[in-house]
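Bench log. Compound arrived from synthesis this morning; before running ITC I wanted a structural hypothesis for how PXG sits in the protein. Inputs:
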Amino acid sequence: MEREPLVYIDGNLVPKSQAKISVFDHGFLYGDGVFESVIVTDGVAFKLKEHIDRLYDSAKAICIDVPMSKEEMIKTIVDVVRANGFKNAYIRIIVTRGVGDLGLDPRKCSKPTIVIIVDKIKLYDDDVWSKGLTTIISSVRRDRVDATTHEVKSMNYLNNILAKIEANAVGADEAIMLDDRGFVSEGTADNIFIVKNGVIYTPLRSSGILPGITRARVMKLAEELGYKVVEKDITPAELLTADEVFLTGTAAGIVPVVKVAGRVIGDGKPGPVTRRLYEKFVELMRDPSEGVKIF
Ligand code: PXG
């Protein structure tokens, strides 16, 4: 029998089936916490440092003082992955406000809880490249940037989950959300790009997106490959009439979208720009200079 994954909880490694935290943790009671997801491919934790930077920025934005330096955090993550022995894995790092009482006042929580999970995850099926994803435009809007901002990777994903429920209800693979003004924002766990006449466009951070680490690397990669990349407000009509549409995210990598709200994108097959970026991107994910080599 395969050994259970080991989960790090506040300094202890415990088997997955026994990995539990208090019901008085404000992460559980209020969604009061932040998280990150990192992929390990052939022993390389892709952009681990960038994910840790974002984790600490998210924590700072909600006034959580992570009780560990970034260097200690990276070392701890590497140790937990090694203890699990997975060369291909998904890492989830969670920092919550910690255990408090039933009131939401964060001052009642004396110490943040740190959890590191190493396991497997699959967001999309293997046939995504033969078929492409079908999507809807959700009626659920991203919060305004001056509300509970989505630029923070917090434990509040209800907005995304409600959009996903709408996609599920009509048998679509993913939901695309608009910002409060009606411009295209992002998917439920991924950023969005469109291609029109050979130019690549992606929404601005001001559209309520999570500033994706995959998004940033894909923009750089596209420029390295000679494409013009433009961050701008994208209207729903521009999305529906794009030559290509694709999504980017840690777990998904780069995935092609072939249908948006009933409209066929391009010729209904994954497009050449998307495919070219994907082929290069999967090489980067295994490149030790693009992350931290664990094995
Ligand atoms: N937007 C949102 C809302 C996300 O949650 C991305 C964009 C892409 O960002 P990165 O930095 O990953 O390129 C995300 C990432 C999960 C899961 O467990 C979610 C994400 C990544 C990995 C796993 O559902 N979201």
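What the model suggests: The pocket of PXG is lined by residues 37, 160, 186, 189-191, 210, 212-215, 248-251 (CB under 6 Å). The two ends are 23 Å apart (CA to CA).
ITC booked for Thursday regardless.
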